[in-house]
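Example 3.2
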Amino acid sequence: MGVPDEMTAVRIREHGGPEVLEVARVPVPVPDAGEVLVEVRAVALNNTDLWTREGSYGAPGNPDALSGWRGPIDFPRIQGADVAGVVVSVGPGGDSGKIGRRVVVDPAIYDGEGPDAHPIGLMGSERDGGYAEYVTALSSQVHEVTDSPLSDAQLCALPTAYGTALGMIERGEVTGDDTVLVTGASGGVGLALVQLAHARGARVLAVSSGSKVESVRRAGAHEVIDRAKDVVTQVRAASREGIDVVLDVVAGDLLGAGLPLLREGGRWVVAGALGGHDVAFDVRRLYLHNARIIGSSMHTPTHFTMLMDLARKGGVRPVIAETYSLAQAARAQEELGRRRHVGKLVMYPLADRGRVRSEGHAR
């Protein structure tokens, strides 16, 4: 079966609430030289989808400016950073041997070609993404996972959440000898941090609460800190010698209050601001104890290659909370914003065609 001329996609024409998501029939993109066309089998939702839609990233000197991940959005924009699928065509001069291969797309747009390049853009924000039946991607950023034991839903859960988590762990220099504190542990990145840090052999303390606690324990947390109570007091009691690395997607007041929790030479890695971006802390707790605060935005090409090696071996298994069809994108984003789930929300763009097998829910 050939590639059709048109496809169903979900896009935004402006910043706003879920109501700005529109289901549309649009032309199937044509891959340029150096690109491939991927049939999207599954696409995961992320907080980046909500914040890009809302324009919540701000701008230097104007934190309230409407902005995408790294600047103004070119509308209309098809959302969706996290894609697992199958290569169905290649651009001029491309390797036709890639056709038919099961792949995961690295969604980052990098500032260079080296293994340690920094992400400066994101698929679904700075270029069209995977809320669609087809998407183009650079051939160099399509990673084959044909023999992976993971489902399409599990594979698409990896790029942003687990890529961000692995970037934090690598930049924080986490080892098997470390005691690690993970904030926001029931979210997509938080749960990935728990799983990956546990797999590395670290002792993991995770901040969560309520009905999500047992899911966080099952992911690998050695102790769960109740975020509804005094987090700093609980962490001190659980790790009297201090914390080696904090892996933080929350920031806010905890960063200032929690800096004294770090051991000498400790690292506080920040990759989110769910608790607020305006942070104050006692700078003496930083320099007197040789501590480091490290900003971490997603992954490098090296980190993503490491992640795909894990995917091929089934070395990490993402938790899938719920699945949706593409036509349910607004509902799925609303559920993501409620933060009642544990794990990842995933859409099947081909579901309405009846071509995607059920791959289960939370597992």
